[in-house]
Design a protein that fits this description.
about 500 residues, 21 helices, about 0% strand, elongated, zinc ion binding
Length: about 500
């Protein structure tokens, strides 16, 4: 009888083969037996092998051992080895058996698991997510710097604080940030259809949600978000003007006035006045207001640089206004608008001219809509003030284009108004942003006006708040926001008529 061939028992087989008491071919990353039956093999996860060897002797070929109940993590390896029964997940199976064994819960769990899918909409694509990241990055690194003329504190609010507020409380504010950022990127790529669609789609979404919120009223928790959204909508309305055609024609073929600018800024004013009880103590809104130069208006009637724009006002109101109250309202609308021009003319490079849009009265806007010559001449002078901000991306070329458009509405033989348009024309045609005093009409650099205190704006808002407080209350506690809601509805419609390029459909945001 030949000697018995020596045999070395393998101890490196997979756990499943050991439990089934069959020879494992030890093929990695999945042994032959496990591959054949389509089950998990612990060779695939070498770092998650049990710390103890199964008790083969206690395993019955006919009856599987009960499934092991997991022990607390604090149990020691010694107690596990001494007291834990062997665990296996299937009954012994012949090599020819093609039935897939049942996997019991003790199958080793891999360390690295496939992550659960993110809770994104089924319509959200990777491209859309990357676009939003791009827009947010651009807003925080670039756009926020352009929302303030010369205020580091205000820049940080737009760059850091406002996005944080958008993430925590208001999706419409977040949509507005993305819309403004897309518009900013368009200034370098005006024909990029992806940016065009993003700018309009996000703004349309923001206006819809924002309008719904206004219709329900405001609370202390959302007053800041509503103000910031209104401010960014007004900014979007203003900045979008640079992407319109050079002639800025309306449906009749003539020059189209930028009425959307005024409507959107009037909306900001209405929101501020209606929510001032909360905004007056806001650490976000008050710095924005105080960053503006003091609004010191001269309403005394003394001669000023723009006094000639008031000449003949009595004859005009007597001709066009039927009652004394309307005559007084019209006269005051002109007087107040011209006072703002005089104030901003003294300190043009501080950003003061931008205040004009929010401070003029509703009556003045009605006079613009009626295309009264005096209102148009005042508007031309306002755009001349913006010439000193021509290096800002969203105001580049605006002064010249708008003034030439307004002038086109006048007859050159008009002896009454054509001479009063000469100053805006000279400013519009000037080649440089820095305008010499002899052209500007005042040595603005030598002015001693104190622009470091912002109390004038706070007082102005206090007056508006008092006016709104006399209106009916919503739900017994919330200020009436119908004026603000009206403006935002008007603005949403104007976006489609004025801001939307022809042939481009506004699609919902994914």
């Amino acid at each position: 009888m030949p000697p018995r061939r020596s045999h070395k028992k393998s101890r490196a087989g997979c756990r499943r083969c050991k439990v089934r008491k069959i020879k494992c071919d030890e093929v990695h990353p999945r042994c032959g037996n496990c591959s054949k039956h389509g089950v998990s093999c612990d060779f695939e996860h070498p770092g998650v092998r049990d710390t103890h060897t199964p008790n083969i002797a206690s395993t019955s070929d006919a009856t599987p051992a009960p499934t092991e109940t997991p022990r607390p993590a604090s149990s020691t390896s010694a107690s596990v080895s001494a007291h834990s029964p062997a665990t296996h997940g299937d009954s012994p199976t012949n090599a020819s058996d093609t039935t897939t064994p049942t996997i019991i819960g003790s199958t080793p769990v891999p360390i690295y698991k496939t992550p659960e899918p993110l809770p994104l909409s089924s319509t959200t694509t990777k491209r859309n997510r990357m676009l939003e990241l791009k827009l947010l990055h651009n807003f925080t690194t670039m756009t926020a710097k352009t929302l303030s003329v010369s205020s580091p504190v205000l820049e940080r609010i737009w760059r850091v604080t406002v996005p944080e507020l958008a993430f925590s409380s208001a999706s419409y504010l977040a949509d507005t940030l993305l819309a403004v950022s897309a518009l900013h990127l368009r200034s370098s790529a005006p024909h990029d259809r992806e940016l065009i669609r993003a700018s309009h789609s996000y703004m349309a979404s923001a206006c819809s949600e924002y309008g719904a919120c206004l219709s329900k009223g405001v609370t202390e928790s959302n007053a800041e978000a509503l103000f910031l959204t209104a401010a960014l909508i007004a900014f979007q309305s203003t900045a979008s003007r640079i992407f319109t055609r050079d002639d800025i024609n309306d449906r009749t073929g003539g020059y189209s006035l930028p009425l959307s600018w005024f409507h959107s800024f009037q909306g900001v004013k209405a929101v501020v006045a209606a929510t001032w009880q909360w905004l007056r103590i806001s650490t976000i809104v008050i710095p924005i207001i105080e960053s503006q130069p003091a609004l010191n208006l001269d309403l005394s009637g003394h001669p000023t640089f723009f006094s000639d724009l008031m000449v003949g006002v009595e004859d005009e109101v007597a001709k066009f206004e039927n009652d004394t109250a309307t005559q007084l309202e019209t006269r005051m609308a002109y007087q107040h608008a011209i006072a703002v021009l005089d104030w901003a003319h003294k300190i043009p490079y501080t950003g003061a001219p931008l205040v004009f849009l929010a401070t003029v009265s509703r009556r003045f806007i009605e006079l613009l809509e009626a295309r009264r010559p005096r209102a148009l001449a005042i508007l031309a002078s306002y755009f001349a003030l913006l010439k000193c901000l021509d290096d800002v991306w969203w105001l580049k070329g605006v002064a010249r284009r708008e003034i030439m458009g307004i002038v086109s509405l006048f007859d050159p033989d008009d002896e009454e108004w054509w001479p009063r348009l000469q100053w805006p024309l000279r400013i519009a045609l000037h080649d440089n942003v820095i305008i010499p005093p002899q052209v500007w009409g005042r040595d603005w650099a030598a002015q001693t006006t104190n622009t470091s205190q912002g109390g004038g704006f706070v007082s102005h808002i206090e007056l508006l708040s008092d006016m709104f407080s006399t209106m009916p209350q919503m739900n017994g506690a919330t200020p009436d926001l119908e004026p603000a809601h009206q403006y935002i509805v008007e603005q949403e419609g104007m976006m489609r008529d004025i801001l939307l390029p022809e042939g481009l459909e506004i699609l919902p945001v994914d």
